[in-house]
Specification:
The structure is a single chain. This protein is 43% helix and 23% strand. It has helices spanning 55-71, 78-102, 106-117, 129-137, 150-153; strands at 5-8, 11-21, 26-37, 40-48. Strands 1-2-3-4 form a four-stranded antiparallel sheet. It starts with a strand and ends with a helix.
């Protein structure tokens, strides 16, 4: 078992056996915080001192988590904080994809998605009926319609 050194209630560290850091060249420290979440004691890692984690940052993070637990606002643990950030990142990515699809025109869809999926090369001089229909029969203005608006047009 590692030798943890308790700095204060809820904050402790262990020293790396060989790696040195800082001006006095003391051993690098790995900070963790301990707190109770839903009646279960949890130990959550903050990181190495050489990567920017200090005793002050550990104290501040522990104080934020305790305040969130006391008030009921915000994440109560670092795991909850990571989960919230991951969900926010996924929601932003989904919104970005939806907006990208909403900005796609019929002509862009044809060139980038439909035509390449058909497996035809542009060097081939034997165009299928669908290509002829798109280039000759469909009005030129239809290429500028956004795909999400086509449902509203009720062609």
């Amino acid at each position: 078992m590692d030798n943890w050194i308790k700095v204060e209630r809820g904050v402790r560290y262990r020293e790396h056996p060989t790696r040195k850091h800082g001006v006095p060249r003391r051993p690098d420290r790995y900070y963790v915080i301990r707190l109770a979440v839903d009646g279960v004691m949890r130990q959550e890692a903050l990181g190495w001192e050489s990567e920017g984690v200090t005793l002050e940052k550990a104290r501040l993070e522990l104080a934020r988590l305790r305040e969130a637990k006391r008030t009921g606002k915000g994440p109560r643990s670092l795991a909850e904080k990571r989960e919230i950030n991951e969900n926010r990142r996924k929601a932003d990515e989904e919104a970005r994809r939806t907006a990208e699809v909403a900005r796609t025109t019929v002509a862009e869809f044809w060139q980038n998605s439909y035509w390449p999926a058909q497996g035809h090369s542009h060097e081939c001089h034997c165009y299928p009926r669908s290509h002829l229909f798109f280039t000759t029969r469909l009005p030129m203005q239809a290429g500028y319609f956004f795909l999400h608006l086509l449902e509203e047009l009720k062609w």
